[in-house]
UniProtKB/TrEMBL annotation:
Substrate binds at R224, D353. The active site is at S154, D319, H352. Keywords: Acyltransferase, Amino-acid biosynthesis, Cytoplasm, Methionine biosynthesis, Transferase. GO terms for molecular function: homoserine O-acetyltransferase activity; homoserine O-succinyltransferase activity. Transfers a succinyl group from succinyl-CoA to L-homoserine, forming succinyl-L-homoserine. Pathway: Amino-acid biosynthesis; L-methionine biosynthesis via de novo pathway; O-succinyl-L-homoserine from L-homoserine: step 1/1. Residues 48-355 form the AB hydrolase-1 domain. This is Homoserine O-succinyltransferase. Homodimer. Belongs to the AB hydrolase superfamily. MetX family. The record marks R321 as: Important for acyl-CoA specificity. It catalyses: L-homoserine + succinyl-CoA = O-succinyl-L-homoserine + CoA. It comes from Methylophilus methylotrophus (Bacterium W3A1). Pfam families: Abhydrolase_1.
């Protein structure tokens, strides 16, 4: 897409909330703030709002750039903008950084106004349920009663699902992309290994590393390297790197020998320099805890019985972390409740990360459905 299809230069905003928020854990945030961005214009009837729910390492910067020199656009810039599948000439798009995040919303690295020091490990564990409640309050703050659509991939898809359980009257359409109704034991295991890499880092200091002037960089680096492996497919890794040697011949050492090793180390180092370890712990825990069927004797159909929206569920063939079979569980539960649902299983070599890619077929599905939504 050319820059003419971009939302252009954008600026983050911050909404402050003084009404206490009681979290699912029972902990209470007396006050908090949420960083968010908007693209497009809210129409007079306020019927064209679309909420984007981000995945584990995402944030409010969904589209556009912060300056003409900004090298990297928002994380879903290929999808959101004028003339793009989620067309900002039609929709008013909202992206936000969830509670517990590290990009402007209240989280472990932000200052606790009661102590004037970082929350650190005292910031409570947050859940998908807590995020949706805070998102609903943000919509109230913006004067929006009902969403034209809520859209999310991966962990964001879980939030889109929960919106329809607790606020069914506030959602007309829901997109659940590359997601699942809960994590498998294997997925929970990956998350635990990643957390242990961080927690056992000598510079973690029980989560109070801010006040020690350190960063558990090694642990966060390993956590990201592990996570990145699960986001890619074997085919994608093979096509991009295969067994290519970094220096052309074997050095018989434990330094970087293969291109794949170089790539993982680069991704780990980059992430460790940008993301907060305490936030990573909380985001992975939110993934673990999400299970809407738990309160319904494991019956997902009952959990979704209050939903009223029309659904689009999309999976990707090589996504082994959130496999198509998990998406079909969601589809079946929606059909059990006689809800309108369209399902697409997109052929892609990109694994779980496919939902972030500008795949022509995938984007055509999104565009065709979004064009039919009346605002």
């Amino acid at each position: 897409m050319s820059e003419s299809n971009s939302v252009g230069i954008v600026k983050a905003q911050v909404a402050h909330f003084t009404q206490p928020l009681t979290l699912k854990s029972g902990a209470v945030l007396p006050q908090y703030h949420l960083a968010y961005e908007t693209y497009g214009e809210l129409n007079a009837a306020k019927t064209n709002a679309v909420l984007i729910c981000h995945a584990l390492s995402g944030n409010h910067h969904v589209a556009g750039r912060y300056s003409p020199e900004d090298k990297y656009p928002g994380w879903w810039d290929n999808l959101v903008g004028p003339g793009k599948p989620l067309d900002t000439n039609k929709f008013f798009v909202i992206g936000l950084n969830n509670l517990g995040g590290c990009h402007g919303s209240s989280g472990p690295s932000s200052v606790n106004p009661l102590t004037d020091r970082p929350y650190s490990a005292t910031f409570p564990v947050v859940t998908v349920e807590d995020w949706v409640e805070s998102q609903a309050r943000l919509l109230d703050y913006l004067g929006i009663d009902q969403l034209a659509a809520v859209i999310g991939g991966s962990l964001g898809g879980m939030q889109a699902l929960h919106w329809n359980i607790v606020y069914p009257e506030r959602v007309r359409h829901a997109f659940v992309i590359a997601s699942a109704p809960n994590l498998t034991a294997q997925n929970m295991a990956f998350n635990e290994v990643a957390r242990q890499a961080i927690i056992t880092d000598p510079e973690f200091f029980d989560g109070d590393y801010y006040n020690h002037g350190t960063v558990p960089r090694r642990g966060l680096r390993i956590a990201r390297m592990l996570g990145h492996i699960t986001y890619l497919s074997d085919d994608a890794m093979g096509e991009k790197f295969g067994r290519k040697l970094r220096h052309g011949d074997v050095k018989y050492s434990f330094d970087v020998e293969f291109e794949m090793e170089s790539y993982l180390r680069y991704q780990g180092d980059k992430f460790a320099g940008e993301f907060d370890a305490n936030t990573y712990l909380r985001m992975t825990r939110a993934l673990d805890y999400f299970d809407p069927a738990l309160d319904y004797d494991g019956n997902l159909s009952k959990a979704l019985s209050r939903a009223k929206a029309k659904f689009v569920v999309i999976s990707f063939t090589t996504d082994w972390r959130f496999s198509p079979a998990r998406s079909r569980e969601i589809v079946q539960a929606l059909l059990d409740n006689a809800l309108p649902v369209k399902y697409a299983e997109v052929t892609s070599a990109h694994g779980h990360d496919a939902f972030l890619m500008p795949d022509a077929h995938y984007h055509a599905i999104m565009r065709a459905y979004l064009e039919q939504i009346k605002v």
